[in-house]
Amino acid sequence: MKHVNAVVVGAGAAGGVVAKELATAGLSVVLLEAGRWTTNRDCNKDDLQNQRTSVLGLPFGPDDERHPRVVVDAKGVPRVVAPSEGGGHNAACVGSGTVSYGAMAWRFMPQDFKMRSTYGAVEGSTLEDWPISYDDLEPFYEKAEWELGVSGDVDPDPFKGPRKRGLPMPPVPRNREYHILHPAAKRLGWHPFDIPMLRNSIPYNGRQPCMQCRWCVGHQCEVDAKNGTQNTVIPTALATGNCELRTRCRAKEILVDSQGRPRGVAYFDERDRLREQTADLIVVSCAAIESARLLLNSKSRHHPNGIGNRYDWVGRNLQGHTYVRAAGLFKEQVYDDLGPGASVAICDFAHNNPGIVGGAMLCNEFIRTPYQYISKTPPGMPRWGPRHKKWMRETYGRHISVGGPIEQIPMWEARVELDPEVKDYWGVPVARLSGNQHKHTVEIAKFLAAKCERWLQEAGAIETWYSLPGIAGASGGQHQAGTCRMGDDPKTSVVNRHCQVHGVDNLFVIDGSVHVTNGTFNPVLTILAIGYYAAAWIAKEWKGTRFRP
Length: 549
Known about the structure:
alpha/beta, single chain, 18 strands, 21% helix, seven-stranded mixed β-sheet, 2 domains, globular, seven-stranded antiparallel β-sheet, Cholesterol Oxidase, domain 2, 10 helices, 19% strand, FAD/NAD(P)-binding domain
């Protein structure tokens, strides 16, 4: 195959942005994606078959048979899991999770980049500052918001980082829960506002506004109003004529030359043929688990433990988000069936909580389908039988749930490594997830659960209850991050501040893997911003020969 300037592995949030930025800068790019390119015709409104429940498999991939993974439980017992059974599998399709996600578009707060400086050392953790700041990413946050399209109104949030420009679209029309929770938060002295969403509230960039249906999270938008890389930056990249997208291509390893310098990527194509694509530079954007796996599988005489893994940091510090939630029952009907459901948030407890390291953004939740409502039952409620059915029928429309993603504290022992025995369909060692979450997570959750309950009670709930997350077992099931940490010191990180692998000048990891900490918010806008930020540096340094041997 023809040699190109750059090969990007993974057409998700970061990979789509990087491909577009490099292609528009004039570089020739091959974009490899393990899955297929779905369309809004694939929007199957089936409560049991969506990425959130995965009862009947994952409609956006990967398929169960070819992609096992090993998860080690809290007792140290490994278990082989299929994608539909969990294990932190991301969607395998063009756009990846941005096809079916909830589309919350949060900027991290300035403190999220300076956790060690803000809170000090935390025993048993690898808590550290990022080598870059909020100010470094601010222009790229703005670029992501305007190029992909973000709706909402964050002006009333006094805790946000400074911004030079507002959001391009007003909020999606407010639902009944918003009008119940917003005034309740104000009465408590908190600061509620409209959630920023990668979702059209008005016609934007030639696509329709949100129709406010219930089938949003876990589904592809049938009117194409949900903004992901598959319907924004990737089409722009292809339109340049400089980018070629190859779907159903599963990366095997990063190839190196006789000096140990990357020269391309080996991958299995749609017919399971092993192919090689050579390039001047390689960008790995497979998300935290698969990016680490690819680097670890790229072994050679020069990189015996996997490329970039000289100091055993690849795969370490696996993070995700542990959620805290509280539920409330109301006397009257509070559910109006208007999507996306999530509409109002507060950031009063994201930071600056006495005795607590970090915190979380809190908001009402996305619409729950009847099947998903099973998980909202109060303690002691049976999961089947007449009592269960009666409770479901009587409470479904009178229920509101609020919660948020706890900023996990990174730990050295939480990791991705290669399983010594289990291989995928193509004979490549699979990812093995192990480790636990930091014990302080429970203290953070208790603090935030009380705030969630207080909010619901002030809003008029006659009965409330909450759930606390468990900390046993590996994280990374949702919003995975941290396994290729960004840092200035090669001995304590995998990539530098430009997402360039230490000691390997033409290899980059650009996705949530590089997050030092994972913020108090859904991380996709930060992943997009890092894609713009790192790609801008590559394009600036390029000059035709910058990354050629």
